[in-house]
Write a structure and sequence with these properties.
13 helices, mainly alpha, 2 strands, single chain, Transglycosylase_SLT_dom_1, two-stranded antiparallel sheet, Transglycosylase SLT domain-containing protein, about 0% strand, Lysozyme-like_dom_sf, Lysozyme
Length: about 250
């Protein structure tokens, strides 16, 4: 048996230890609570960033080109400032009438190709609003227009009206000469756009030669599995733009 003094000291020590534990718990609780709040806040921020990363990529791209994007710039003032809302509206309307092609299609291809920048030139040599290559589409379109073989000059391709005329004529040529036998209009348009981006020879050999698509839905799958990703994206992009522009046609 322990002496009374020893028992008293042991009891006092236990009391002090218990008191210290309680005090520590009280002091640490706000810290732990604060840490929990901070962790929740960080988790919320991460969730917000993930949601932003999953947003429509096309919308992010259009924001970078607001100065040349009629659908994001000036739709609200469309009835008042039509020339600002639709760049090259007068030239595109004239060309669409002359070539007998859908005006919204010309707008859509022009937006997809150059974002309405008439002086732009690609590394592949495509020039102007509809990114016409002089020695390829430019020459074919020029012959269809003027019934003589010649290659458009750099000055001609940088001229907005001439470039739109050549690009639209080439679209018409693709539609009638290369894919005129296609009876499904939606399928035909998708083939035309694929050929404008990838070339008619590639489209015929690699998309139509074996198990050709019978409609637009099958064409989507064929584009995904047999065409370059650029061509697949291009066709879908132009169709999206055309649908938007067609809502504003007179």
């Amino acid at each position: 048996m322990l002496p009374f003094t020893a028992l008293k000291n042991k009891s006092l020590t236990a009391h002090i230890t218990a008191s210290f534990c309680i005090l520590s718990a009280v002091l640490l609780f706000p810290i732990n609570h604060s840490s929990t709040e901070q962790a929740l806040h960080q988790h919320h921020q991460i969730s917000e960033k993930s949601a932003l990363n999953q947003s429509d990529a096309e919308q992010q791209i259009s924001i970078r080109h607001t100065l040349s994007d009629p659908l994001n710039d000036a739709v609200d003032v469309y009835t008042v400032e039509i020339e600002e809302a639709f760049p090259f509206e007068r030239q595109i309307r004239r060309v669409a009438s002359e070539v007998e092609i859908d005006e919204s299609l010309v707008y859509a291809v022009t937006k997809a190709e150059s974002s309405f920048r008439s002086g732009v030139q690609s590394h592949a040599g495509a020039i102007g609003l509809m990114q016409v290559i002089a020695s390829a589409a430019g020459r074919d379109a020029y012959y269809r227009l003027h019934k003589k073989r010649a290659t458009p000059t750099l000055a001609q391709l940088k001229d907005p009206y001439t470039n739109l005329q050549l690009g639209s004529t080439y679209l018409k040529l693709l539609e009638e000469h290369h894919f005129g036998h296609i009876t499904d209009e939606k399928l035909k348009q998708m083939l035309v756009l694929a050929a404008y981006n990838w070339g008619p020879v590639n489209v015929k050999r690699k998309l139509l030669a074996k198990n050709p698509p019978r409609n637009a839905e099958e064409m989507k799958w064929v584009l995904w599995t047999k065409a370059p990703r650029e061509t697949y994206s291009y066709v879908n992009k132009v169709l999206k733009y055309q649908n938007q522009f067609s809502q504003f046609e007179a």
